[in-house]
Amino acid sequence: MSASREFNVGVFVIVSTALAFGGVISIGSGRFFKQTEMIETSTIDSVNGLTVGSPVKYRGVPIGEVKAISFLDRYYPHADEYPDVFDFGSPVVIRMEVRLDVFGEEQAGNFTSNITRGVETGLRARLTSAGLTGGLFVDLDLADPTAFPAKKLAYVPDYPFIPSAPSRLDQLFDRLQSISASLAEVDFSGLGSSLQTTVTDIDGVVTRRLDPMLADTGKFITELRVSNDKLQKLLDDPTIPTTLANVEAFTNELKAGFEGSTPDIRTAIAELPKMMTAAREAAQRLDAMVSSARVQSILKGLDAAATDLGPTIQKYDHIGAQVSDFLDSEGYELRQLITALRQASEDLATLMDRVSHDPPSLFFAAPPKPAHPGDIVGPSK
Q1: C-alpha–C-alpha distance, residues 327 and 20, integer Å
Q2: Phi and psi angles of residue 50, each rounded to the nearest 5 degrees, phi first
Q3: What is the distance between the alpha carbons of residues 73 and 89, in angstroms, rounded to a whole number?
Q4: Which phi and psi angles does 237 have, rounded to 5°?
Q5: Rounded-to-integer distance, Cα 80 and Cα 85, Å
């Protein structure tokens, strides 16, 4: 056998062995028997870090991988509204191959066929970072359809389409940029000046008002301490208990005197308020009479008569008639008033006479009997 023929036979054996080995591995892995489906999405965000072969996950569960990444103008050139102008903002189309066997035999065909209903309930594709140093993967998950509404496409996609939602990392960066822009508009120098002015004003208020108040408080505490010392010395005085005992004894004697007083004195004392009330009423009635229109008219007439006696002589009879009418109409009230005043004066005179002759009788019992010559004064043995 020639050398060239031996070489060809060796190459054939090696290639056949490799093909057989690869076929066994492929058949053993079941890759050719797995049911897959293509889906796609598009995004205007950067896909830096996403490559062909990157994982595709549904709610965190791996279900496939990225098969193609390119611009919309390449896959759908007729979707461009202005074909003669380069679209620098053209979306990026991401096509993914999804294994349906991960959903089970009964649900395998329902995933792609029900994608439209899933999109209506909020199914969105989101680029998610695998870590701080890892790449990106496509995460399919439910989101708020009102917060991330599905936009109407200007073309008909070749595969079931899932709208995209902004990356959480991009949302974080957008918020940080918004906060940074808001902080840039804040006048920190003005705030610092205002804060310094406020601190200065507060310090001035403390110096002008609080310090004098603290000084007055210290003075008040000192005076209070001195007053407390004086009060303590007064309470420590040994004569205080004796004085209190004397006051209590005097009070008891006065109470006993009132309780042992004669019935006449008690009756007189009880009648004093009535007498004062009657006198007050009589004075009020007299004042009312004097202030009445008829009395004022009489007084005015007398005054006019005193001023000019000549002309008033003719009016004297008229005034006298008025006085007579007044006495006729008010005589009874006037007599009662005079009687009440006389009675009140007599009662007061009697009371004052008794007080002047026998003052103790107002508070204590009946006066002792007068002593006669030869009587023994003092307690009997």
Answers
A1: 158
A2: -100, 125
A3: 11
A4: -65, 125
A5: 9
67 with 164, same domain: the answer is: yes
3-class secondary-structure state, position 15: helix
Q: Evaluate whether residue 15 is within a structural domain.
A: no
Query: Does residue 150 lie in a domain region?
Result: yes
> Residues 374, 377, 380, 381: is their CA dihedral positive or negative?
negative
pLDDT for 148-205, tens place per residue?
Answer: 999 889 899 999 999 999 887 666 666 776 787 777 777 777 777 788 888 888 877 7
One domain, residues 161 and 63: yes
Indicate whether 203 and 74 sit together in one domain: no
Q: Contact at 8 Å (CB) between 53 and 120? A: no
Domain residues for the domain of 231 are: 196-236
Partners of 129 in beta bridges: 136
Alpha helices in the chain (DSSP H): 3-29, 72-75, 110-113, 115-121, 168-184, 188-205, 211-235, 239-259, 263-291, 293-307, 309-357
> For residue 345, what are its two tokens?
């004066």
- What pLDDT does residue 106 have? 81
Domain assignment present for residue 316? The answer is yes
